[in-house]
């Protein structure tokens, strides 16, 4: 069988190598072709199982992914140590839709970076390597392999921010690296602990996802005399890496800096797929492999999620820089993912349908936020390219000069604040519906925050685009076709998901159902 | 039992390498090239091609599974462990000769001496891995070290950007001799004490004598001192804290090819002998927890001090010195895993693999440093500014090596580090904490490894020119990059090779 997943992961890297030896002038085209082909191939991930005849159930779950490729890599068993690491790629519904999102956004990021003229070749090569890393994260089905891919994005991202970033790029790039690698060190500790705890308990050592999801660690660890439930410790160790990536308060401070300083396309990828790595890890790794630990931590998680939502919105209200505002709105929006996951794993004796709704909402929010925030960053990028300024108050009345950009920006803002009919609404509605049963107070806070969200977004729109035209900007031209292309493509996706979310729900159902079943089998806490 | 042809066969790699060293020395004498003439290339080619002969003998031994492993009345053991290191040392020879070729023309001007010394030192290193008798190990250590002392002082011409460098090279040589002599004395003292306890210098007899040793007995303190002194003596060679003080000064002062050679050969040989004496000599089974505590603390401090101090260095070779101290710390984490389970071949093989990957990567990193020094005469950290624009290939190769040293996945450095930490973690006790300290240290190490990568790609170059990169050094770099990628993919077979090497160490142990 054709190794589709391997191709998806490594085709961008091959593109980067071709770039390095290919003619300098053609680097944009080479990058666009390779990422475009990757995107087209990635669609087959979705279409393939449907054509295969098994219908929407064919996307499979973590136990039986629709796509799977495995090559033995390290099999090392001597003495008491058994080390089994496989090159095992797989894709079920949850992976498939993140893989497609990544392929789409990477392609659009390259299209949207057409204007980059400083060291274009290296820029495009790094974007492609970044795409490889993220692809690998979303389809690794072996925990060690997952960790290896997890850090591949680090260096390209670091260089992309540090070379092509804004004024404080050096600071932002280092902050990004230090936060990320700190989290991943703890994640590795968690992975090793999980691997050996399960191995010692069941006598079989494996890091493959299906094994880890079907066996759970029992008992307690004792550290310095303090005893802690094994699963809770595992959950916390693994989650630290994901919490930084998500980002969850109080580990979020790298994000506004990185977002603000990164070049447009990199901000798009950062918000669109890199934050989703954290959310994906939370659902796929933490919840699947330490369900009881997740349940024990559900309440703090819900509280932190609610704080994320309202704190991010509050910070957005006071931002003067347009990009920073969107960055903080990302913090707020990712809070819905956290709240949704927390509701799905919550301790109450909830109807599983609510759990599934919350988790589906969280997953759709991952997709929706990726697309919508991508649009917002592209809009700001277009504006910044022309005006070289992102100060909201310095603009005014841009509608008169840039109607096309204003319309698409307004559209993106409506999607971001959750207008019914667009993707954001679907996600938020599902999260609210699902989480109210488990965490009413947090849900109310989240719902009320919608007012703040509308406030900061519309206020920004009003100050920058409506009202009388600031004569300083009378020379600005509207967005051209090339700049509009990624915006329109994302807009179509946002609208489609908003009108017909069913296809995403179908795609996700088998994967998420598996998690809900695991959760349902846990003893309900009598706390 | 008497000596026969079999013994010579077992010794053949070492004999062949000694012959090659002598040949290079004599050739140099007859060619009167003075290190600069047209015959310079011939010497290097003879040295490199000549190493195929010992490599052939090693392979012959490796593919003779039924060979006797001990020869010369038990003084020599040509087991899988020794063969693993023989391949490693021959690889080091190849890498260092390639990397040093143009540097010698520019700054050392003595090819013959340099190559001959290097080959003699490698003979010593091989003996350190294959001797199983304390006096032989001691002599092997001296045979390894003396050429190093000379190599440290061989910088005849100043490096352009560093007008004092020739003088500092001589200074480094003197320091190295003095500190090296001191460490040898300590090691010898430890060996003497061990002899006093067991009445023999043969590792096999020591192991069997120690099997009847009771930990509360009258000799316990003497044995403890012996353990500590032996560890301290080898601690100098592997530059573990607190025996690391020589490394930064001597790494900085010595000519870069010499530094490269110290950082890989001396360290690998030191570990080879340390592990051999501790495991094959049975010390692991009788060592008290004081010894393991000392080793664990040495590991912790080596990692932490090495990584933190490396951040603030402005000289690239000083930085690499602290980096190598930190890497020694990681290896000691694996070594400390023997505390709870002396026959821990998973930890031992993880150590062997880590050393192999470290050696390959460090050769690449230093080849990059040497290539830059050849082209610009700069060996400071800031000479790497904007290297990518001046020489993209050199910059990419060098960055890959540095990232692998930092343990950034998916490069071989990361995989080998993960395997080492997993093997250590598996032992329980205090080791998970040591592993967590190691992981946090990897985070710290990002600051300087990625710091160089940052300079290479982001910083503004001092001049916007294309650097001429010496072909030999870049060959070494390319080989090392290929090695890194290959080791990443084939880490499984390498682990099994390490496992076979480790397994052969345990034959003398009881229980």
Q: Can you tell me about this structure?
A:
The complex is a heterodimer of chains A (527) and B (511). The mean pLDDT of chain A is 88. Chain A has a domain at 297-527. Chain A is 70% helix and 6% strand. In chain A, helix 14 (322-345) runs antiparallel to helix 18. Chain A is mainly alpha-helical. Chain A has helices at residues 4-21, 27-51, 93-112, 120-139, 143-150, 154-164, 169-202, 209-214, 230-245, 254-261, 264-289, 291-296, 298-317, 322-345, 352-387, 403-416, 423-436, 440-465, 481-499, 502-521; strands spanning 67-78, 81-91, 220-223, 226-229. Chain A has 20 helices and four strands. Chain B is mainly alpha-helical. Chain B has one domain. Chain B is 75% helix and 1% strand. Chain B has helices at 5-31, 40-50, 52-62, 80-108, 111-130, 134-152, 165-198, 203-211, 220-238, 246-253, 256-280, 283-286, 289-311, 316-336, 345-376, 387-390, 392-406, 412-425, 431-457, 471-489, 491-503, and strands spanning 70-71, 76-77. A two-stranded antiparallel ribbon of chain B has the order 1-2. In chain B, strand 1 and strand 2 (76-77) form a beta hairpin. The longest helix of chain B has 34 residues, at 165-198. The mean pLDDT of chain B is 88. The chains are: A mainly alpha (527), B mainly alpha (511). Chains A and B meet through strand 1, helix 5, helix 6 and helix 7 of A and helix 15, helix 18, helix 19 and helix 21 of B.
